[in-house]
Design goal:
The protein has an eight-stranded mixed sheet with strand order 3-4-2-1-5-7-8-6, sandwiched between helices. Helix 8 links the parallel strand 3 and strand 4. It folds into two domains: 238 residues, Carbamate kinase; 142 residues, VC0802-like, CATH 3.30.2130.10. It is an alpha/beta fold. It starts with a strand and ends in a 12-residue tail after the last helix. The chain has 17 helices and 14 strands.
């Protein structure tokens, strides 16, 4: 247990030349450069172009291929993505020889993908073949192109800076075997000498489990976690563009935010549930079971230890983060449900079928409310499904915002009372509030247009006066 496994996100990867001076070389002695494994995401925006935009849903190559039975719209998108990849590494790589190698790499991968999709499209023109059965495979194929490109380019960049970097491709490109994830990782790392080599590993791994089917866009963190667990890393690190802090600096101001410093996997789970990208919950589970501590750092502040996530958690009586998101309150009201079972199961089945994320829920004698993150179209479909089973029920959906106050141990802080007072003082109407017995999180439901103001009010009430943590702006 002498090495670390470290992950770099897509936004930070787009600033790769700066990372040479912060993460990879800097003032490190030669021996300090090694005994580390880096797992990398695709350069910022590339996965959106290959699949679809994560936030807006704007179609990429995959989405256009899925909706275009015979046209060539997906080919135009593939060409645009290829050009964007080449433009990115042209800015990163400083020598023409490296640029040419990277251009050839992109050309080989993208042309190979185009040939596969064209063959699949031709097969689909025959009635006996169904492209729909292969769409998960197509999604896996395309998603792996981004991570393979970024890992290859970073390897070239580091080699130019006298680092013995090694490109480790888990994407299964032109691989005739189909191992499971554990076998894929073991095979890739079998002959790597961590004392003299710096592995740059693709964040996507092709395996029998089908990572996209199980984790969709969270696959790179899952690969990172499994790699740390299987290699017996002493620590797993995620390098982000900012510190893991007490609130979104864009909302409360960077001068008011506080680095968390230390927290628990339990808190990390709550953040994931609210859409905060601290770590994918499945990845956190792998690290927790393997007893590998996780650290989240600012990639561009190499001397700052960042935030340690482990079993001990942060100090009691301290709010660690205030965050929130827009939700839809999906309310099922049926007076006849009193004393009966099945209504909750019906709602859960409908929400699961339409892939709606359940952020939180509340129920009483005759009403079940799920607070959801998802499209209105999917919610309307779920509503129709519930009404088919219970036609006398009333199902409504309301747009709200859920703001959460989170900490490792809030049991002695009267967060619910103080939070309601802070929101009232800010002139914000509270539609609902709830807290669990474990006192890890307290949730407030407010008008959707009051989301940012609510975060600011609660952050001022619980975090701004905490002097023991270092402000990020310092």
């Amino acid at each position: 247990m002498t090495h670390t496994v470290e992950k770099i996100g897509g936004t930070s990867m787009s600033r790769a030349p700066e990372l040479v001076d912060t993460l990879f070389r800097g003032n490190r002695a030669a021996e300090e450069v090694y005994n580390r494994i880096f797992v990398v995401s695709a350069f910022g925006g590339i996965t959106n172009m290959l699949l679809e935009h994560k936030k807006t849903g704007s179609p990429g190559v995959y989405a256009r291929f899925a909706s275009d039975d015979s046209g060539a719209g997906w080919q135009d998108s593939l060409h645009e993505t290829s050009a964007r990849m080449c433009a990115i590494h042209a800015d990163i790589l400083t020598t023409s020889a490296d640029r040419e190698r990277a251009d050839a790499f992109v050309r080989d991968r993208m042309e190979g993908a185009r040939a596969c999709l064209m063959d699949l499209q031709r097969l689909g023109s025959y009635g006996h073949f169904r492209i729909a059965q292969q769409m998960h495979t197509v999604r896996e194929l395309l998603s792996g192109l981004g991570e393979a490109h970024s890992a290859f380019v970073l390897t070239l960049l580091l080699q130019r800076h006298d680092v013995n970097a090694r490109f480790v491709d888990l994407s299964g490109w032109r691989d005739t075997e189909n191992p499971n994830l554990a076998e894929r990782l073991d095979q890739a790392m079998a002959d790597v000498d961590l004392t003299t080599e710096l592995p740059i590993v693709t964040g996507y791994a092709h395996c029998t489990e089908g990572l996209m089917r199980e984790y969709d866009r969270g696959y790179s963190e899952v690969v990172f976690a499994h790699l740390a667990a299987r290699t017996g890393a002493r620590e797993a690190l995620i390098h982000k563009e900012f510190h893991l802090s007490s609130a979104d600096p864009k909302i409360v101001g960077v001068e008011n935010t506080v680095k968390i410093g230390r927290t628990s996997y339990d808190v990390a789970d709550q953040l994931s549930n609210l859409g905060m990208e601290a770590i994918h919950p499945n990845a956190a589970r792998v690290l927790r079971r393997a007893d590998v501590p996780l650290r989240v750092t600012n990639a561009f502040e190499p001397h700052d230890p960042g935030t340690l996530i482990g079993p001990e958690g942060g100090a009691a009586g301290r709010v660690e983060m205030v965050t929130g998101l827009e939700v839809q309150a999906f309310e099922l009201y049926e007076p006849d449900m009193v004393g009966l079972k099945g209504y909750d199961a019906c709602a859960l089945d409908a929400l699961t079928r339409h892939k709606l994320w359940i952020v939180s829920k509340h129920s009483n004698a005759n009403t079940i409310t799920h607070y959801l993150s998802g499209s209105l179209k999917a919610i309307k479909r779920a509503e129709a499904d519930v009404l088919k089973t219970y036609p006398n029920a009333t199902v409504t959906a309301r747009s709200l915002a859920l703001v959460s106050v989170i900490g490792s141990d809030l049991s002695e802080m009267s967060v619910l009372l103080r939070g309601l007072q802070a929101l009232e003082g800010a002139g914000i109407a509270v539609h609902g509030a709830q807290q669990g017995l474990r006192r890890i999180e307290v949730q407030f439901l407010v008008p959707r247009d009051a989301l940012a103001d609510s975060i600011r009010a609660l952050h001022d009430a619980f975090v701004s006066d905490q002097q023991e943590a270092r402000p990020l702006a310092a």
